[in-house]
Amino acid sequence: MLKILDHIPDKLLATPAKQLGKVLNAPTLIHLTGKHHAPIFISVLLHGNETTGWDAVRQYLHQHQGQLPRSLSLFIGNVLAAEQGKRHLPDQVDFNRIWKNTDTAEEKMIQQILAQMQSKKVFASVDIHNNTGMNPHYACVNKLEADFLFLASLFSHKVVYFLRPNTVQSMAFSSLCPAVTVECGVAGNMDGIQHVRYFIEKVMALTHFDHPPAYLSVYHTIATIKVPPEFDFVFNSECDAKLCFREDIDTLNFCDLPVNTPIAYLPIDPSAYLYAFNEQGEEVREQFLHYLNGSLCTKVPVMPAMLTCNKEIVRQDCLCYFMERVI
């Protein structure tokens, strides 16, 4: 499955995400040599509809091609899903859920990538993503260590620390080097593209890691909230579905929600529920949600992230994450 190159193919940098399949036709790892040999690993399009990373990387390479300050290993992921603007195709696995003992056909590809990057003594790893709902730009780490937090701080003062899901790219690379995932808002937004481009500039210029700045706000993911597959749901507070979410629920992202904040309205079945999974993968909805006055409400103070009004993403991934502040 994996194509490995040591150069940028002709016309690649002029190719938008939706046309990459015609140029590459497979996931592709490109090793480019720079002044410092220990490479930065950057992954883009692990989700085919999240195009900001590719747009920012090709802008950076247009400017620096032939004179990179540090070697770069660029992984261009799900080019087939990118052609259709999808997170992944119906017959595919999620390319950001295959990085640890997943028993999938893609696992051999992942092991090959990790082995190559370990042999190259990878300096740092960056995985670039978008959100489908309204979110600030923020970074994610899987270790609360100084090098990881410093790397994250180059992108945002908002940092999310999580351990689940544990099959993501950043988790796999965290055993090799400082690793970060950056979340860049809605795909196609020029502010996000420019923000990521400037971040890549800073990361590629790094020669060492400093102490993280004191102004960081670090949040810990404590639960993943999912809609049971058998329940219908809509984003309309006045409906007759099992679960009715408010139309602008994604405006609650990174907001402190007090106890008894409504998350879902239950107009026809007061026994309907949402799943909540903790870091150990245990279902713990009774710790976080309870029924009150026709709604599922927060049982403890929480801060949500990645709330989305995109039904397809909710089905493929989750409704949101609940967090608590740790720093």
Could you characterize the architecture of this molecule?
It is a single chain. This protein is of the alpha/beta class and 327 residues long. The chain is 22% helix and 25% strand. The protein contains nine helices and 17 strands. The strands form three sheets. Strands 1, 2, 3, 4, 5, 6, 7, 8, 9, 13, 16 and 17 form a twelve-stranded mixed β-sheet that branches. A three-stranded antiparallel β-sheet has the order 12-15-14. Strand 3 (36-44), helix 2 (52-64) and strand 4 (70-76) form a beta-alpha-beta unit. Helix 2 crosses helix 7. The longest helix has 15 residues, at 190-204. The model has no long low-confidence stretch (mean pLDDT 96).
Strand content: 25-35%
What's the helical proportion of residues? Answer: 10-25%
| Total DSSP E strands | 17
Q: Specify the overall morphology.
A: globular
Biggest sheet, in brief? 12 strands, mixed
SS summary, helix count: 9
Summing up helix and strand content along with how strands pair, one would put the structural category as: alpha/beta
Q: What Rg, in angstroms, do the CA atoms define?
A: 20 Å
Low-confidence stretches: none
Mean pLDDT: 96
Terminal CA distance reads 42 Å
- The ordered string of helix (H) and strand (E) elements is EHEEHEHHEEHEHEHEEEEEHEEEHE
